[in-house]
Inverse folding.
């Protein structure tokens, strides 16, 4: 599948349109040796579906998270943020390549540190947050998780261009992957639900949009093509389903 990220095109007719856990047997579900993926060239800008005008720049997206955001085990173009940009493009909305600040193995406080150590030269039209699976895997407390979410929101508010542009994405259920086959899947599912309930409440209280990708991830228990070759992380196919749902909830 070939993805196109066009820089900025002007088409003249009569009217002009332009047209978001590597398998680790130690303390983390994700392999924390993976490098941070964060390049200043990854930027995007976005508006409402019907308000893209030809003389306006493409939209900017900042995707924050962990292995689910950098797409552990898949190619760059298969990551959900990159596929989201392609879905938007196919629906008449032009984005630049997303900027991703994420690392396999990150917990909430790791992401806070990652943001603090990154350079930002501009604010972003849209900001997504998908974090928490490593908090759950390492039995970190919900209270700590919620405190860190508040800290993350402060940083996000300093990086967004406008209200209504922040999306909270639910934590996928890794217990449904082949990696979780010999574990207590019911317990994993219950714990994931607890963290996601906290995320959803956090989104509601702060007026943020929320999208559930957890149910998609749970289909992997019967659909092996939704998991990549590491038997743990989503495949490009699952990320595509996320991207479409995220677009419909967030933009469309």
């Amino acid at each position: 599948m070939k993805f196109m990220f066009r820089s900025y095109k002007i088409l003249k007719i009569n009217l002009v349109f332009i047209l978001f856990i590597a398998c680790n047997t130690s303390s983390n579900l994700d392999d924390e040796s993976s490098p941070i993926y964060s390049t200043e060239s990854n930027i995007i800008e976005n508006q409402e579906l019907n308000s893209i005008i030809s003389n306006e720049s493409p939209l900017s997206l900042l995707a924050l998270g962990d292995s689910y955001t950098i797409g552990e085990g898949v190619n760059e173009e298969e990551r959900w943020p990159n596929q989201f940009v392609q879905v938007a493009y196919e629906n008449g909305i032009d984005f630049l390549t997303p900027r991703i600040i994420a690392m396999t193995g990150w917990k909430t406080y790791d992401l806070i540190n990652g943001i603090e150590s990154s350079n930002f030269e501009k604010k972003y039209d849209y900001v997504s947050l998908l974090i928490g699976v490593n908090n759950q895997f390492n039995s970190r407390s919900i209270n700590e998780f919620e405190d860190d979410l508040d800290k993350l929101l402060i940083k996000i508010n300093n990086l967004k261009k406008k209200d209504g542009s922040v999306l909270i994405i639910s934590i996928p259920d890794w217990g449904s992957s082949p990696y979780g086959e010999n574990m207590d899947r019911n317990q994993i599912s219950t714990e994931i639900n607890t963290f996601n309930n906290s995320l959803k409440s956090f989104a509601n209280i702060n007026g943020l949009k929320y999208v559930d990708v957890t149910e998609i991830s749970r289909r992997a228990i019967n659909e092996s093509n939704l998991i990549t070759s590491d038997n743990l992380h989503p495949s490009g196919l699952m990320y595509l389903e996320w991207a479409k749902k995220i677009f419909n909830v967030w933009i469309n």
About this structure: The longest strand covers residues 61-65. The first helix runs from residue 67 to 70.
